[in-house]
Prior knowledge:
The protein has 449 residues and is an alpha/beta fold. It is 43% helix and 8% strand. It is built from 15 helices and 8 strands.
Amino acid sequence: MFGAVRTSIPRTRRVFADRRFLSSTVSRFSADQHGHLPTTQSPITPHLEFFNSVVGGGKGIPTYRVLDGVGNPLDGAQLPELDEALARRMYENMTRLPIIDNLLYNVQRQGKIAFYMTCYGEEATIVGSAAALASDDEVLGQYREMGVLLWRGFSYDSVMNQCFGTHEDAATKGKQMPVHFGSRELHFHTISSPLATQIPQAAGVGYALKRDPLRRGKNCAVVYFGEGAASEGDFHAGMLLASTIPSPTLFICRNNGFAISTPASEQYHGDGIASRGPGYGVHTIRVDGNDVLAVYNAVREARRRCIEEGRAVLVEAMTYRVGHHSTSDDSFAYRPRQEVENRKRLDNPLARFRMFLEARGWWSAEKEDVYKAQVRDEVMKAMRRAEGLPRPPVEEMFNDVYGGEMPWNVKEQKEDLKRLLKKYGDVYEPWRTELRKYKGEGKEFLEGR
């Protein structure tokens, strides 16, 4: 019966009735002239208009700054709650980084370690962010975050043991490349070489923290990466995971201008990495990465939002990579030497913060000389000590490669090495020389103890 009645209404009258109902519904539930797309907050417009910025009027995303180039606070800038002890600790940690970098870069050139990466020019981004975190926040670094570990108490001996691969390298047990640090005690996950793999892992760590009753609302996962790593699919996977399954994950992008030899201008057409945050519904800020106080303020607020809202936050720190990408790179093949010298002179994060401290009477040239001499002496002692330590026992190379029981292929490799050492270890001089570098010289390994 109902079907007969419905079909008896002329089609034209039904269409007009549907239109009147839709029009009245839109006008009743919409605050805008043309309403919103159903089930969304997107207003409907009759104007054909494309957009190419997350900022109104097509303007670029602003960069947050506290100190100008000579260490004076900008008008209207809010300084963090900073006493002399905290300010000096931040500057001292920034100062330690180039001293360690200089030594280990030269040590690599002498052939004593295989590889090294410096963080020249990025000291403010690293230390400013480290100071804003809780000491037990979980950190997943990339390559230039040694300063985070030093801030948390990582010793010079630990730095050298990892880079030289000694038997005292607690984190990687001599298996990893230099500067691939890690520390379970300091909540710093071991660095891995493949680019950007730590980004989706950090989203998983953040989700685990959210599920842990003892750490929920207390800690966040913090992941560092460069703007080049943000070109990897792992960046988008990590951002998508942390935003759709909300987790307290703090993404810190060190935009230092270069992905190895590729300048940022050739890596993306949009407005940096910060422009991608709103697309994932993530709180985002761009900060002057050479202003340690701006980085400190931005990361502290970003962490607060992570913890209180249980959601991801993105910080893009704009800095400049003064050093070569690594000891395997000659950056003057793709950028002018004068460009680097100009950036060191005009936008030096250490000089900027030092002038801020000196203006308050918290630092001086005399203190600078004394502190640098002390650090150089301590770093040299740690380097010489590590240089004289043996590598881990030969057998250690087969342990902890995989979790759980050792798989058949690793067992097979282990037996093959035993067989070769028994056959050639005492008669082939290069092997005898190499075995002396290992703790136990391979004897324990061969004897099966």
